[in-house]
Amino acid sequence: MIFLELFWAFFKTGLFAVGGGMATIPFLYDISTATGWFTHNELANMIAVGESTPGPIGVNMATYVGFVTGMDVSGLPTAILGSVTATLGLVTPSFIVIMIVCMILKAFRNNKYVNAAFYGLRPASTGLIAAAGLSVAVTNLLPGGLAALNAFNWKGLILAVVLWVLTNKVKKVKSLHPIVFILGSAVVGILFSM
Amino acid sequence: MLWDLFLTFAKVGVMTFGGGYAMLPILQREVVEKKGWATEEELMDYFAIGQCTPGIIAVNTATFAGQKVKGFWGGLFATLGVVFPSLIIIMLLAGVIEAFSHIAWVQHAFGGIRICVCILILNAVTKLFKKAVIDKLTLAVFLVVALGSYFTPVSPVVFVLAAGILGVVVKNMGGKKA
């Protein structure tokens, strides 16, 4: 039953993704590799859509993954069911954990074990996101793998460098919302057939 | 009251453009100023807890605030409220994108967009790195997890559990090194 699997996959994501929406990306990558419900390229598209639409990124991506996964089962009705299933799966652990924390709030906030765990969790979560980012970069810059160096995506690399400079070094531009850069990249992609 | 919670948090959800951090000013206006459901300090507490519990920060904060206002059901309705706009908007958008995804220029557009996603992730990692990697051990954890996750099929769950346990062990047994 694919919807049970979908719920469980997102339940795990919600339980183990520490540090917000971006932290779910490595888990989504893992789901893609393990199940084949959606491709790595589709996932990169979903990240972009999740960033450019209203709502928390993590929830947006879960809804999107559920939609695409359900769509493959038998069209629109199962796509909607997939969206709802994935989103509920993602938020269920949050709900349970928060309900428990509410009961033991003071003990939780000042607990030395909680703080100590986060000392290790933060760099691990950052490392996972870095690995996922590297995967997205490699699939897009080297679509044929290391064996096909001649297929290297030069246009993509140039765009990446330009975007990095714009989002980090150019004063008036870098504080703009990501959607500006996403839409700009879409236009560049169309103009240069990327 | 429950309906009010659902609607208020649906509003917060639809206005939270981007990550959980974007929701703080909106929560301040809706929950503290308009509804008077929490004080400024309480809201900061909810947000802090939302950040250091597993899952999406925006969802955690909403669940927490809802629970404080009206117990279990309050938490449930606030949670459903905050995800509701995402569900509707993404389903509509995903339907449209799926229908047009075979068109060449749509594919080119996403070819450009995926490059942008790489840079957005890189920027997020840079920002998180500054907060998370504070000494040699955290640098080692970052490198081991990044390389391990990239080159092996080990599930992220394993890395998260191991890192959490490592944190507890190091901080509580090795004295006050870090």
Overview of this structure, please?
The complex is a heterodimer of chains A (194) and B (178). By secondary structure, chain A is mainly alpha-helical. In chain A, 79% of the residues lie in helices and 1% in strands. Chain A contains ten helices and one strand; from the N terminus they run αααβααααααα. The model of chain A has no long low-confidence stretch (mean pLDDT 89). With 178 residues, chain B is mainly α. The longest helix of chain B has 44 residues, at 57-100. The mean pLDDT of chain B is 88. At the A-B interface, α1, α2, α3, β1 and α4 of A face α1, β1, α3, α4 and α5 of B.
Write out key terms for the chains shown:
A: mainly alpha, 2 domains, 10 helices, B: 178 residues, mainly alpha, 7 helices
Q: What is the topology?
A:
The complex is a heterodimer of chains A (about 190) and B (about 180).
Chain A: H1 2-16, H2 25-35, H3 40-52, E1 55-56, H4 57-74, H5 76-103, H6 105-109, H7 112-141, H8 154-168, H9 171-174, H10 178-191
Helix pairs in contact in A: 1-4, 1-5, 3-4, 4-5
Chain B: H1 2-15, E1 17-18, H2 24-34, H3 40-51, H4 57-100, H5 104-132, H6 136-151, H7 156-173
Helix pairs in contact in B: 1-4, 3-4
Short summary:
The complex is a heterodimer of chains A (194) and B (178). Chain A is mainly α. Chain A has 10 helices and 1 strand; from the N terminus they run H-H-H-E-H-H-H-H-H-H-H.
Order of helices and strands of chain A: HHHEHHHHHHH
Number of domains of chain B: 2
Strand content of chain A: under 5%
Low confidence ranges of chain B: none
Return the average pLDDT of chain A rounded to an integer. 89
Judged by helices, strands and strand pairing, the structural class of chain A is: mainly alpha
Beta strands of chain A, count: 1
> Kindly state the mean pLDDT of chain B as a whole number?
88
Computed Rg of chain B:
20 Å
Q: Please count the helical segments of chain A.
A: 10
